[in-house]
Structure formats: structure tokens, C-alpha cells
Write a structure and sequence with these properties.
The chain has about 725 residues and is α+β, with helices and mostly antiparallel strands. The chain has six domains: about 60 residues, Arc Repressor Mutant, subunit A; about 60 residues, OB fold (Dihydrolipoamide Acetyltransferase, E2P); about 70 residues, Nucleic acid-binding proteins (OB fold (Dihydrolipoamide Acetyltransferase, E2P)); about 325 residues, no CATH class; about 55 residues, no CATH class; about 110 residues, OB fold (Dihydrolipoamide Acetyltransferase, E2P) (Beta Barrel). About 30% of the residues lie in helices and about 25% in strands. It is built from 16 helices and 34 strands. The protein has a five-stranded antiparallel β-sheet, with no helix packed on it. A five-stranded mixed β-sheet has the order 14-21-20-17-16. Strand 30 and strand 31 form a beta hairpin. Helix 10 crosses helix 11, helix 12 runs antiparallel to helix 14 and helix 13 runs antiparallel to helix 14. The relative contact order is 0.07.
Length: about 725
């Protein structure tokens, strides 16, 4: 009945839309059928799928520009609604939220914003509260205990009476289930995380805020108990035996989930024969098993400053699936013959077994390539392999550059913490030669596998990165032109090579980091899709994720598809229909979980940066203006720490915000603050709790008499020795 109603209302030429007219059109005659129709109409209206106009005529909600979507709020109060099937999220101002909070499913109406070219939305109705739990510090109120809400948009204390404390005491970090969203919000403690000063409790609280579970369900542990810790003879049947080949892994010093290994030799014709060997996780994680369902739910491993929340239990991720040295491991191998132009002229994908010779680190391989005699002696039997890798990687880099791939190469921070979770230092991550070698080899394997299956025209999952939106490129162009950089040609169909050349031209200048960061913000978010839509940033029409099945679900799915199609040679109609049905949902879920993981990682990093800067309140540093907004501008220090200089702190003049040129201009002095300007700032405040750092311009004198509250004196940390460490 519902399907018939929707199909009928979809027809814009259908004008008889009263309930009795719909009844007639659907040839409903009995009183029971009429009751059923009215019930279905009411349910569809309740679900916000259909709406009535002032004349009681029914229409699809979309006819009134009304949709259901998920609300994401910003710390500044406004939000965006994501609507399935709609390319762009819709902006919702603070005044149009109608009491909605972050994470809610809402029913909105889209309208043209006054005096603006963009569209906005207003919330008509709350459909579902998706966030009913908060994480916070238990405090003592006048009568009951309370926890301050951590949900954006719910700026209230959640009160908990004695009967609902469940063993929690003041000073505990707790998870609270909200029972009533009324003027007096009430809740009950459902989990005690520990005391606020316990090591690592701050990061655990962020994980709980995002509903990230660390422990695995019982049925997952039951399944992995049956998995052996060593490769069995029966597992080797039919596999390509590579145990006599020279194969190495190259990873970070502290990596434990080693999912890729490399072999390389020069062929008689002068070409290179590269083998990328990836842990065969699909052998152990079978479809629809407890392990598989949990991996789908998690989507990805989450890498935080002092821990990893793995997609798979450690018995797999650090054990039987990790390509540890001197033990047999099951793999899927992609062999590629590569010519001197960096082109893959031949390839083969096979299930295999390897016996890795060495567990190398980026640090040691870099030192070997730089001429370290001691390490060269220690690894004398594989020195030639590393130099051959360097030679091939340079060819691949040059090929990628000719193709027009964009090398953003922006700075990344590395947060160093003590055993107790306290921040020791924040430094820049460095990428040496060996990091780039592995990156090039992994990119090539991903491209080769994607091209193989796109040409076979079988259901598959791809990593896609679509063409940037023209509006964002226009904004970038207006800012870049101020700095002396322009984009030639039409923005409608701009080729990656044009943007790549622009970034390259900025290298070696003080504007490079800014240009690369601004352009990166213009790019669409990469995601997973069942269609091969190409990867704009890499300037390649074929791309997937094949190389990290231990830590990313799409890679695991790619391995399962390789096993099904190539190893088991199952391309039956039933199998193809099955994957055509499940891959779109798995792609959407994986993209969504990736976004959540990025948010969690960013929240933890922001918190730790704020914690680090708390000791430097009152001290001065040099920085660069990295972005300009209508409420102030952000200044970035050498080690990537950013702080806000609020417009109200520009006290030596009245400053106008020039939105077109993204700069602040003093009314009297003409003094300007714009992106890429070097400024000296003073840290005015830093809050670990709010994950926020505020700066003021050093030595800026006030020419205005303002009534200001007297700020509390902030003492300098007695152990502080000046600036944050700027070591690379």
C-alpha cells in the first residue's frame, strides 16, 4: 500500500490528492481498505515522507523542498544537514535549529537564503535523537550530582540523583544515559571510566563520546580462539610459494600490524619486477562471521597518540595476519612489470605464501640510503634491494608528476606522550626517502588492482576522489590571486595537472604551505563507491584500496572479491547479484566510519595540543596567519599548533573584515592582517577541556577605552623553558 501511495504521489500530473481521491484512484472500496489507507497515509506523514498542504492534499515532502537528514553541529553553534542522495550538505543557522542537537535526525525545509546565492534550511521537526549519552566529569551540585553536557547544542547540565549514580563518585569520568530531554535534563550513570587523573582517561572519554568500543564482543573472541597462531599446511594448497624469495617489510619503528611486504628485481629486458605482498586477512575473516560483522561496524582502525583502536583483534592484527619476519604468512600478491617510464606493462594477482627476511624500519632504511656504514654492514645482503627500490620509486614519482598528481605535502604534527599519557612534546612528522618508496609502491598496486577489475566489469569497490566543486575553486582562486598565484582556463573542467603545477610553483616559497593547505580544503572528500569514478588528486582514472586489509574494511573486501573471482573463479550470477547488492552499503558504511575515525583522531590531537600549550600561557611565539574568518583569524606555529586571534582582541584600531580578500583592515591606520602574514603572538589561554587555544597579537596596544573584566593572573609554569620544541 505504501509503495502504491508513494508511486502515485510521485506523479506531478496527478492532481486529485485528497485522501478520498487517492482512495478512488487506488480502487479502494471496502471500509477496511479505507481504514488501512488512512493508517498508511498517517504513518507516511509521521515518517516525514509525505506532507499535506493547506487544502489537505497530500504531496511527497520533496515537492515542498523538505527532506530527512542527519544534523552535524559546529562548535560555533550552526550546523549542516547531510541528506542521502544529495551531493552537498545544507547549512542551518543557529536560529533555525528548533532545539535540535548534534547527531539528531531532523526533518528540514530548504530555502533560498536572503541576500545570498546559497541555500539554507530550517528544522521543521525532530525525527530521532541519535545521541542520548554523554561523557563527562561527575560533579557535586546543590542537591544532586551532575555532568556538563558534551553534546553540541545541549548546553545544559545533566543531573543524576543518588539512586542513579551506580557506584560513581565525584571526580569520576562517567558515561551518562540521558533519560529526559526537558528543561531539567536527567540521566543515569551507565559506565564509570575511572578517576579524572588516571593515565589515558582523557582519550578514553573521547572514544566513549563517539561510541567507540575498545573491547570486542564475546562471539568475536570465541571465533578467534579457533584460529591457529601459525600457518597450517592445508592453508598452502594451491598458493604461489614465495618463501625462498627475498622479501622485506618497511614500517614505522613502533608499528605492530605489518600488512605489506616488498620484493623487487631487475629483469633481463631492463624492466623492474615489483611484488607487493599484502596480508591475506580474508582467509581468516570470512563473510558474515562474527569477526566480519564487527570489522564492518568498526570500518577502520583508529590511530591515537598513545594507542590504536584496532579493526581486528590483536591475535590477527599483530599476530597471524601481521607479516612478521622469519615466519610463514599467507598473502595476496600483486606482481607488476614496470618499464623505465613508470608504466605497468604486465601484471599478475595471485594468492601466495611468504617468509619475510627482514622487518625494516623507515628510519634504518633512510640511514642505509644516506650511507650509514654500520647499518649497511648489518644488512649487507639486502643493500642492493633498497637502492633498487629508490631507483624505481623515483621513476614512479616522475611518472606521477607528469600525469598531474597533486603533491600537497602539508605539515603534520606528531604528539609525543609519556607512559602516563602526558604530552612531552609536539614535533613535525618527517617523511624520508623510504616513506616515499613504500607510498609509491602501494599507490601503484592499488591502481593496478583497480584497473584489473574495472576492465573485467565485475562488482567491485573503489576509492574515488571526484572533481572539486567550482564554487570552492572560485574561492581558492580569489585568495590565491592575492598571493600572486592564478589558475588558467575554465574552472568547470580543470585538469589536476593545472593545480599540480600551481602547487609546485609555490614550493620553496613562504606561501607553499598556505597554498597547499587552501587547495586541499577545496578538494572533495575521498570516499568508497561501487563505481570506478577515478581519483582526481592522483590524476588516475583507476584507484582502490588493496594494501591495508588489517586496518581498513574496504581493503579486506577487495581481498575477498579477489579470492572469489580470481582464486575460486566464482563469477556465477548468484555471486555477482550478491555483491552488486551488498557493496554499495559497505562502501557507504566504510566512508562513514572513516569520517568518524578522522574526527576522533582530530579531537584527540586538538585536546593534546591544548594541553601542551597550557604551560605556555603568557609566552610569545612567531607564527603565520593560516586562515581568516568573520570572527577573527587563526595563527599557526612552526609545529602546526593553531590558535585563534579573536577580532575583539584587535585592540589598537577598529578592524573591518574584508570578505572578498579575506583580510582585516584597520579603519584608522589601514593596518592589515591577511593570510600568510608573519605575526608574533602571545598565548592568552589554552583549555584542554574545550580543546581550544587563544592568541593575541603581541605588543598590540589599545587605543580605545573598553570596559573589560579583570583577567585572572596566569602563572608561568616553573618548569617551562620557552618555546615549544620545533625539531623536525
Amino acid at each position: 500500500m505504501k509503495e502504491k501511495i508513494i508511486e502515485l504521489l510521485e506523479n506531478e500530473n496527478f492532481l486529485e490528492r485528497l485522501d478520498e481521491e487517492i482512495s478512488t484512484h487506488l480502487q479502494i472500496s471496502t471500509s477496511q481498505e479505507v481504514k488501512e489507507l488512512l493508517k498508511e497515509l498517517n504513518e507516511l506523514e509521521e515518517q516525514c515522507i509525505i506532507m499535506k498542504d493547506d487544502d489537505n492534499k497530500y504531496y511527497l515532502s520533496s515537492h515542498f523542498n523538505c527532506y530527512i537528514g542527519n544534523l552535524s553541529l559546529n562548535k560555533k553553534g550552526y550546523g549542516f544537514v547531510t541528506i542521502e542522495g544529495m551531493e552537498q550538505d545544507v547549512f542551518v543557522s543557529v536560529d533555525n535549529l528548533k532545539g535540535s542537537i548534534d547527531g539528531d535526525t531532523v526533518f528540514i525545509q530548504i530555502f533560498q537564503a536572503p541576500y545570498e546565492s546559497k541555500k539554507e534550511a530550517k528544522v521543521l521537526k525532530l525525527v530521532k535523537r541519535n545521541k542520548t549519552r554523554i561523557v563527562g566529569l561527575l560533579k557535586k551540585g546543590k542537591r544532586d550530582c551532575y555532568v556538563e553536557s558534551t553534546i553540541l547544542g545541549l548546553d545544559k547540565e545533566v543531573f543524576i540523583d543518588k539512586a542513579h549514580l551506580h557506584g560513581a563518585v565525584v571526580g569520576h569520568m562517567v558515561v551518562v544515559e540521558i533519560k529526559a530531554f526537558k528543561s531539567n535534563v536527567k540521566g543515569t550513570v551507565v559506565e564509570v571510566l575511572g578517576h579524572k587523573s588516571d593515565p589515558g582517561i582523557d582519550i578514553l572519554a573521547i572514544l566513549k563520546e563517539h561510541d567507540i568500543d575498545i573491547a570486542f564482543p564475546k562471539d568475536v573472541y570465541q571465533q578467534i580462539d579457533k584460529i591457529e597462531d601459525v600457518v597450517l599446511e592445508k592453508d598452502l594448497v594451491g598458493r604461489l610459494d614465495l618463501r625462498e624469495e627475498v622479501i622485506v617489510t618497511i614500517d614505522g619503528d613502533d608499528a605492530k600490524d605489518l600488512d605489506d611486504a616488498i620484493s623487487l628485481k631487475r629483469l633481463e629486458n631492463g624492466n623492474y619486477y615489483l611484488g607487493v605482498h599484502i596480508a591475506d586477512v580474508s582467509h581468516y575473516v570470512t563473510e558474515s562471521s562474527a569477526l566480519d560483522k564487527e570489522a564492518v561496524a568498526r570500518g577502520t582502525s583508529i590511530y591515537l597518540v598513545d594507542r590504536v583502536v584496532p579493526m581486528l583483534p590483536h591475535k590477527l592484527s599483530n599476530g597471524i595476519c601481521s607479516l612478521n619476519p622469519q615466519v610463514d604468512r599467507l598473502t595476496l600478491s600483486c606482481f607488476m612489470e614496470i618499464d623505465h617510464h613508470g608504466q605497468v606493462v604486465n601484471h599478475k594477482i595471485s594468492d601466495s605464501v611468504i617468509h619475510s627476511n627482514y622487518r625494516m624500519t623507515y628510519h634504518n632504511v633512510n640511514k642505509i640510503l644516506d650511507g650509514d656504514k654500520l647499518l649497511q654492514e648489518e644488512y649487507h645482503d639486502v643493500i642492493d634491494l633498497f637502492f633498487l627500490m629508490q631507483e624505481l620509486a623515483k621513476i614512479l614519482e616522475d611518472s606521477k608528476a607528469r600525469r598531474g598528481a597533486i603533491d600537497f605535502d602539508v605539515k603534520e604534527a606528531k604528539v609525543l606522550v609519556s607512559e602516563k599519557g602526558k604530552v612531552k612534546d609536539i614535533v613535525l612528522r618527517t617523511r624520508g626517502t623510504s616513506d616515499r618508496i613504500i607510498e609509491e609502491f602501494m599507490l601503484l598496486a592499488n591502481q593496478t588492482v583497480a584497473k584489473h577489475f574495472e576492465q573485467l566489469d565485475l562488482p567491485f569497490i573503489y576509492r574515488v576522489h571526484e572533481h572539486p566543486k567550482v564554487a570552492k575553486l572560485q574561492k581558492f582562486q580569489s585568495i590565491a590571486s592575492i598571493l600572486g598565484y592564478g589558475i588558467e582556463g575554465s574552472l568547470e573542467d580543470i585538469k589536476p595537472v593545472v593545480l599540480s603545477q600551481l602547487v609546485e610553483s609555490s614550493k620553496g616559497t613562504e606561501n607553499h604551505e598556505l597554498i597547499a593547505t587552501l587547495l586541499l580544503r577545496c578538494m572533495q572528500k575521498a570516499r568508497y563507491d561501487e563505481q570506478c569514478l577515478g581519483h582526481y588528486g592522483l590524476a588516475d582514472e583507476y584507484y582502490t584500496h588493496f594494501t591495508s586489509p588489517i586496518r581498513r574494511y574496504p581493503d579486506l573486501l577487495v581481498h575477498r572479491l579477489i579470492r572469489t573471482y580470481l582464486v575460486e573463479k566464482d563469477v556465477s550470477e548468484k555471486t555477482l547479484d550478491h555483491y552488486e547488492m551488498v557493496i554499495p552499503d559497505l562502501a557507504y558504511q566504510s566512508s562513514n566510519r572513516e569520517r568518524i575515525a578522522i574526527t576522533v583522531e582530530r579531537d584527540v590531537e586538538d585536546m593534546k595540543k591544548a594541553e601542551f600549550m597550557e604551560q605556555y600561557v603568557g609566552q610569545e611565539f612567531d607564527g603565520v596567519i593560516s586562515s581568516v574568518t568573520n570572527f577573527g583569524f587563526f595563527v599557526e606555529l612552526e609545529n602546526t599548533i593553531e590558535g585563534l586571534v579573536h577580532v575583539s582582541e584587535l585592540s589598537d584600531d577598529f578592524y573591518f573584515f574584508n570578505e572578498l580578500n579575506l583580510q582585516y583592515v584597520g579603519q584608522r591606520t589601514g593596518k592589515k592582517f591577511k593570510m600568510s602574514d608573519h605575526v608574533r603572538i602571545r598565548v592568552s589561554s589554552a583549555s584542554k577541556k574545550e580543546k581550544k587555544i587563544d592568541f593575541v597579537i603581541a605588543d598590540m596596544k589599545s587605543d580605545f577605552k573598553r570596559k573589560t573584566k579583570k583577567k585572572p593572573v596566569m602563572k608561568r609554569n616553573a618548569h617551562s623553558k620557552g618555546k615549544p620544541n620545533k625539531r623536525r
